[in-house]
Amino acid sequence: QAQPVESGGGSVQPGGSLRISCDFSEINLGTNTMAWYRQAPGKQREMIASVTVGGKRNYRDSVKGRFTISRDNAKNLIFLQMNNLGPDDTGIYYCNPFADPTTYSLLQWGQGTQVAVSS
């Protein structure tokens, strides 16, 4: 089945930066608001940032001021620039259209990209 494809994760020390990407061309929902989700070890998946087609952005409080979401509408790509990373940012990062948590199970999730922050 068609899925988003995430990439760019890795291991960094606290205070470091990463830029992750997502190609959502396969799911062909380029007019949707797109979002980044994070699933930390032992925790439920949560939305951390979203961006509309027009570029309006929203962030979860825990990442506000440190993360920047952006998108390339022509290429069906979204990005997440993550600065000043901390251990609580460790997790698997996924992209998908903006959705209510009660409908997460209806989405097609990709493999995600792993981000590990430790000293």
Summarize this structure as a short list of keywords or feature phrases.
six-stranded mixed beta sheet, single chain, globular, 119 residues, mainly beta
In short:
The protein is mainly beta and 119 residues long. Helix content is 0%, strand content 43%.
Following the backbone from N to C, one meets helices and strands in this order, namely: EEEEEEEEEE
Q: So how many helices?
A: 0
Mean pLDDT metric? 94
Largest sheet: 6 strands, mixed
Strand percentage:
35-45%
How many DSSP E strands?
10
Quaternary structure? single chain
**Uncertain ranges:** none
Cα gyration radius (Å): 13 Å
Distance between the termini: 38 Å
**Neighbour order of strands in the largest sheet:** 2-10-9-4-5-6
Helix/strand/pairing class, anyone? mainly beta
**What is the helix content?**
under 10%
Question: Could you say which overall geometry the principal axes of the C-alpha atoms support?
Answer: globular
What does this structure look like?
The chain has 119 residues and is mostly beta strands. The chain is 0% helix and 43% strand. The chain has a 6-stranded mixed beta sheet with strand order 2-10-9-4-5-6, with no helix packed on it. A 4-stranded antiparallel beta sheet has the order 1-3-8-7, with no helix packed on it. The relative contact order is 0.32. The model has no long low-confidence stretch (mean pLDDT 94).
Helices and strands in order:
Elements: E1 5-7, E2 10-12, E3 18-23, E4 34-39, E5 46-51, E6 57-59, E7 67-72, E8 77-82, E9 91-97, E10 113-117
Parallel strand pairs: 2-10
Antiparallel strand pairs: 1-3, 3-8, 4-5, 4-9, 5-6, 7-8, 9-10
